[in-house]
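Work Package 3 (structural annotation) set out to generate three-dimensional models for the target panel prioritized at the project kickoff. During this period the team completed the workflow that converts sequence records into discrete structure tokens, so that structures can be stored uniformly alongside our sequence database. As a representative example, we reproduce one entry of 455 residues exactly as it appears in the project archive.
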Amino acid sequence: MTSASQDAIARVTDGFQDLVSRTYTQLSLLRGSTYSEQQIGMFANPDQSGMFDDPSLSMLATPGDEVFSFVLQRDRLGEQATVKTIVNAFQAKPYGWDLASIEVVIAWLVGTSKLTITVDGNALKRTEVATVLRNTQKHSHAVVAPQKVFDERKVATFRKFCSDFFDEATAPKDPLELARHGSDKLRGKLDELKAQMNGSKYPFVEQLTAPIALLEQAVGKPDEWYLTEFGLGDELLDAKESVADPIQSFLSGGQRVIYDDAVTLLTANTNNLGYLPTGSDADVKRLLGDSNAFRGNRMTQLKQAAEALSKQIGEALATNRATVIQAIEGRKAEVLGSAYYANATEDAQQRVARELDQIIARVERETQIALVREVGNSFEETTYPELLDQLVSSTRPTGDEGHAPAPVKQTVSVKTITASGVHGVLETTEDVDRYLDALRSALLSTLNDGKRIAL
């Protein structure tokens, strides 16, 4: 070559350029482009990097064909090609490519589904390619091979299945990436359904057994299986639409709240239900036990039934509260208007009045009908007589200090006094007379014991 430049340095540079071009005749395949290791990931995974329209992709077609032909030739000869053997071949004559450019070309071939890279028998995902290519110590262990060509119809069928089953707008374009993606998602779905079934308190969740059994047949297979032998698509989609989706929708939505609230209503009112007409809770229990509780408008029905039952319970509770409070309020009026109260000390008066108010407040707060009634019964039999005794025992001084105070009598409720010696039923006037005689005897006996009887 004869340089036209008059500058010495320029002439030397031209000479070197001519020497390089004569020595590395295939360097021009790179079209003068330079690449960096930071670009490897983008070329290896164009689905995620959004490089579909990048002009640099077309510029890699020619050097890519060269590397692909090299790998194909080794494959035909039964020789294993590694990243290291490719790098050694294309850094030498007649190529002279730099390391980063070779790595980018290999990545581009992976990204265009022409080559696969395997390390220790495991095919790399596209997201893993950049890490291995940048690590020169891995090059000798990274086996490069032509990617198998799959039946496009089967690939398209599996891609559509993935989009439909996982509710995805798009799925990976590369067949093997699609297979790995589907395999991982199916495993994730299986784990998800198992966790929901094992940790659930809802009896109908047992129906997830069928979808789980199908998924167990579809997970843990080699990647190529999903592109060549996968045939469970229709069954899985049917199980998803008819069982898995409705149950999962129930578990993640407002239907579960309705169910839980109904269970809580029954649990919290186990005792109260005994005070309602028989069968009042039948609709709620039936809907809670329905094996299809997660379908259709059953939760709407349950909500209505639970609201009706809750209203019944509330009305029964309110009626019992009102009855007991009315009785205690009546006793309160009697106590505050009695001579016992008038003659008691101010401290005793306040203490008795305060206790009466506290008992009424307790009844107003109580949510169990049995306890409301128990408070009422206990008040009549025990508390009311004790309050009278408190007042009597704290009578204010009369000024007559010359006489010893009369002994304080114990007050008992007439409800605690029973007529002994009479049994059975009252059918005749003689039965009534006999019972009244026995009761009179019991009452007189109580008075003779020095007690006071509260009616």
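The chain has a mean pLDDT of 87.
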